[in-house]
Amino acid sequence: MAKASMRERYRLLTRDLDWSPSYVSSEKLYPYTRFEGIKVHDWDAWEDPFRLTVDAYSKYQAEKDKRLYAVFDSFTQGQGHLGLADARYLNALRLFLQGVAPLEYQAHRHFSYLARHLDGPGPRFAALCQSIDELRHFQTETHAISVYNKYYDGFHSPGKMHDRVWYLSVPKSFFDDGLTAGPFEFLTAISFSFEYLLTNLLFVPFMSGASFNGDLATMSFGFSAQSDESRHMTLGLEAIKFLLEQDEGNVPIIQDWIDKWFWRAYRLLALVACMQDYFLPKKVMSWKEAFELYFEQQMLDGLFPDLEYFGIKPPRHLDQAIAEKEYLSHQVHWTLYQFSHAAAFTTTVPPKEELDWMSAQYPTTFDQHYRPLYEKAARMQDSGNRFFSRGLPQLCQVCQIPMLFSEPGDPTRVAFRVSEYRGERFNTCSDGCQWIFEREPAKYVQAWLPVHQIYQGNCGGATIPDVLSWYGYELGRDNGEYAGSVDQQNWAKWHTEGGV
Ligand code: FE
Ligand code: ZN
């Protein structure tokens, strides 16, 4: 066994430990892989490029985790949190812990389901490895960020918040949509559209953001996860190519899923765009630059010409995503600025240098449409009139983001799409979300929309404080305005007195 090559050991581990059922049909053994219309003729044609075995996997990961936890320990003992660029940066971590880390856990659960239910032993084993990776990610992210929970607000109840809070229903419902689809749609959604197409747009802002802003704990987690991510990306691409090669009839089904999940994932990233341009005191690159580099150049110019060979075209509604790069982050942040009394993070008007940076990054939109809003808000704040919106926003039935997006290419007109289903009206934020709704209305009419739930009395009570308590907030600490917040005051005190 020791002398067998990696390839041979992998074959023995996957193919040779598999067997053909004798007293049940394989349809009964694997009941979930036929109803989506995908046809697989030869599961053995699945080639896993990594050929990782269990012993190699655990040895390698144990080494990585040992190094990672040594960094966490020294960071905690050395009061590393005081080396952050500014306490305002912590809002990026709140969003990550509340919004992203729970998705890792959901991914862990669903990949372990795939590890049972895919017919082929190769993909089952690949799914098993990814399932363990995702569980580790949830744990290492939680541990990386837990060091901040000792000193700062907003980090204490991420699980509860993820299930309940209005803006967190955006990531939660995205993943729920994937979990309730069939196994092949899930693979196209999460492994391909999310992990392969868009993962750099999630991880680069958060991890480079951590590094630029002095957050050694999160940065080290990011490096540790990177080798897993590259495996996940490869799995996503292999899965797609495998399905496309198995049967020509699979091509239009997969194209449809890519069209749907590109837009779903892109809409989810609107929160990341805002985080990147507004929550990082030290900027890494703008959302627009990141979108051009990691999506337009790497995916549109690099990947999609290759996929053309399989009959796959770039995703539907792509032109609208490209048009939005000029103003996406500003539209989202302006909304969050007005609603952060109901968020478990704080917002504020960016300081003048940052407004200047945005003017330079977004020369065709920022000065014209957004800078005047912030300058007015700053004047109001200076005269003691920081305002918050008291109403509840209307949400998109699909992405669940408040209806804040404009018509593509025109930042002045809010987009509002209406569809009818069984005599009721449903609102969506864009052509992309409307197309998704109308493709599967029976699914999206069931959406748990936070604002509707609040009005129906299902969220702790009739007043805003009732609802925020039900969310698990510590009122006046976790939410509201950054300037003058408990975190900001402590930060100022610790930096003049030196040490906690
Ligand atoms: Fe992960
Ligand atoms: Zn939408």
Molecular structure report:
With 500 residues, the chain is mainly alpha-helical. It has one domain (60-494): Ribonucleotide Reductase, subunit A (Orthogonal Bundle), CATH 1.10.620.20. 62% of the residues lie in helices and 4% in strands. A two-stranded parallel sheet has the order 1-6. Strands 2-3 form a two-stranded antiparallel ribbon. Residues 267, 396, 398-399, 401, 428-430, 433 line the site of zinc ion. Residues 267, 396, 398-399, 401, 428-430, 433 line the site of zinc ion (ZN).
CATH architecture: Orthogonal Bundle
Number of helices: 20
Structure classification = mainly alpha
Enumerate the distinct ligands: fe (iii) ion, zinc ion
The main sheet comes to:
2 strands, parallel
**What's the order of the H and E elements?**
HHHHHHHHHHHHHEHHEEEEHHHHEH
Give the averaged pLDDT, no decimals: 94
Number of strands: 6
How many domains would you count in the coordinates? 1
CATH superfamily: Ribonucleotide Reductase, subunit A
Q: What would CATH call the class? A: Mainly Alpha
Characterize the overall form.
globular
How big a fraction of the residues is strand?
Answer: under 5%
The low-confidence parts are none
Radius of gyration: 23 Å
Residues in helices, as a percent range: 55-70%
Strand order of the largest sheet: 1-6
CATH fold category name? Ribonucleotide Reductase, subunit A
Terminal residue distance: 56 Å
- Oligomeric state: single chain
